[in-house]
Amino acid sequence: MLHPKPDLMPESAPTLRSHIVVAGQRMQPLAAGALYWEAEDTLLVADLHLEKGAAFAALGMLLPPYDTRTTLERLGKVIRALDPGRVVALGDSFHRSECAETLAEEDARLLAKLQKGREWYWICGNHDPRLPASVGGTVCTTLTICGVTLRHEPLEYVSGREIAGHLHPVARIARRGTLIRRRCFATDGERLVMPAFGAYAGGLNLLDAAFGALFQRHRLEAWMMGRADVYPVLGSLLLPD
Question: Which helix (H) or strand (E) holds 70?
Fold first, then answer.
């Protein structure tokens, strides 16, 4: 009989925190890679990269063309569980701006169903700086809620109070003799960088120079995504690739 492999992440305990505090706002990171801001009934996701498979196929690099459906179905599970009044997608929601106009009919219907009855905001990213009206919702460059700015790319010269995507953070640790590398939420309590939600999105090690000026290193935490939970790990325990 086959047994599932252990998660190998830090053991749960009564003291294990379940919420991140960003700029004084309490938020719940989810193992699916989304962030729920309960006080504002807002679900945040970043870097869906819908239609990445199709974009690669157009360049002659064939990938299984199921990433959009997989990503939307995963997002749908989170939305059904929480029923948020507002969803904010933090940029690079589509792998190319033009891909938003060529969604398969079934995928477009699924997206419309997810948007029904709630506010939906698309923040533009470097991959999708323009989005057509056909995607529904509201398209914007940034969105500020309770003094916290939501944007695609984190800004080094801004002193925190922002939630962003773009960098696809992953964390790597040693655990019981095994090296573990997972997508993560990266934060120092003032700024948070979201993990990529998309099925085909890659990841960048949190110790990479691209993150260097974004966080107060002595306060850095990586909330690593396990199979069913999210685990806070001190920045001092992180390993490079």
Answer: helix 67-82
